[in-house]
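Good morning C.,

I know you're traveling, so I'll keep this short. The sequence:
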Amino acid sequence: SVDFVLIALLVFFIPRIIQRETASNMLPIIDSSLNGRMKTIRAKMLLAVCVSVLAALLLNGAELLVYACRFGLDHPAAPLQSLPLFESCLLPLSLGQYTAAVFLWRMLAAGITGALIFLLACLCKRDMAAVLASLGLFIIPLALRQLVPEFYAVSINALTRVHPFLLLFSRLFSSLIAQTACIFLFGLCYLLIAVLLYRIVKRKTQRRA
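The tokens, ready to paste straight into the viewer:
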């Protein structure tokens, strides 16, 4: 699926943006340069976010194009609740609006995911450790899915898939405001985690200097 291909690309490519310097012991030299330290980290993190968004744009765009060619995009003005899966969802969206919103959300989610993977790689000393740590972000929720299904719906795996947490919030809350607030809070939590990791990387870089 598109999600699996995107995650595989991010997990195996994003850590290499920073791990080359770590593996070759170039970081001390970069830190001592005029534009080293956090300037380098911020520039590379921006690159990781851009690569992640571009990959998501191409993969999801191709998926949407294939879907439109095979099944068409009939009745885009029909309410989202016309789909049995979303009967309890109170968001006032049409099918066309939902498709567009999901597409944009996936771009944002890919950027956040890319930033998280990059920051984890900054905390690892070896390329393999960075890859394993990134894989853990996605494998652990899958392992816990049978024990705690609700946890999977709010894990990073659901961040790009959208519908798992949307269905969970629709089932738990009968208020439109509550459902909408939970969706934004869900994305905000992962953004805050990225900020926290950034602060940790910044402190580590300052100590190394």
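Safe travels,
E.
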